[in-house]
Specification:
- By secondary structure, the chain is α+β, with helices and mostly antiparallel strands.
- It contains three helices and two strands; from the N terminus they run ββααα.
- Helix 1 crosses helix 3.
- It is globular and about 45 Å long.
């Protein structure tokens, strides 16, 4: 079975194969919670937190606090990453 990367489906260039959803745990304001996202989304969350000079838990808490109550945390995290990536300047394609 061939390995499919996000580049193969017109996504962001990535040399790693697409991953399944992975459950992760984090503490927000002293409470343990979990969310499930693909490795690529998790890596982007870590990158965004690094660029903002804040811990990942603080970024997740910020997103959690801003999300509508009828949206689950995992979806809110994915939508946040999508929004951030869309806002980034794009390199003109040749």
């Amino acid at each position: 079975m061939p390995r499919i990367t996000s580049m193969d489906i017109g996504g962001i260039p990535d040399s790693a194969p697409m991953s399944g959803v992975r459950k992760r745990s984090i503490s927000i304001s002293g409470h343990r919670t979990s969310f499930s996202v693909e490795d690529a989304f998790y890596a982007e969350l870590e990158r965004i937190a690094r660029e903002r000079n804040q811990p990942l838990a603080a970024l997740v808490a910020e997103i959690d606090g801003a999300r509508p109550r009828d949206t689950n945390l995992s979806s809110a995290l994915r939508l946040f990453v999508l929004d951030q990536v869309r806002r980034e300047p794009r390199i003109a394609e040749a």
